[in-house]
């Protein structure tokens, strides 16, 4: 996810602030995703009314709230366990 300069604007925003205030000021800005883009306001609206103490709170919410186009290949995990028919890596204990 790329914030396309939105991160600078969010860092200059006055905190604490609400999601409503951020949407009013920056809601039409777009974030670039792996497969497309999405409006900042659309992402924040998924979480309802919130209060943010600092820009990092907003960034965390944005990372958690982007649609499926922001996560790369859907339903893919390289951390799935091997099946009984597969030979996987040997477990290592630390």
Automatic annotation (TrEMBL):
InterPro entries: DUF5789 (IPR043899)
Disordered: region residues: 73-94
Record-given protein name: DUF2795 domain-containing protein
Organism listed in the record: Halorubrum distributum JCM 9100
Lineage: Archaea, Methanobacteriati, Methanobacteriota, Stenosarchaea group, Halobacteria
């Amino acid at each position: 996810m790329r914030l396309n300069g939105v991160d600078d604007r969010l860092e200059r925003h006055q905190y604490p602030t609400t999601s409503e205030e951020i949407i009013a000021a920056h809601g039409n800005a777009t974030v670039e995703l792996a497969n497309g883009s999405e409006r900042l306001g659309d992402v924040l609206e998924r979480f309802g009314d919130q209060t943010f103490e600092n820009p990092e709170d907003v960034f965390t919410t944005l990372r958690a709230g982007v649609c499926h186009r922001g996560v790369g290949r859907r339903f893919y995990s390289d951390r799935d366990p091997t099946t009984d028919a597969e030979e996987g890596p040997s477990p290592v204990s630390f």
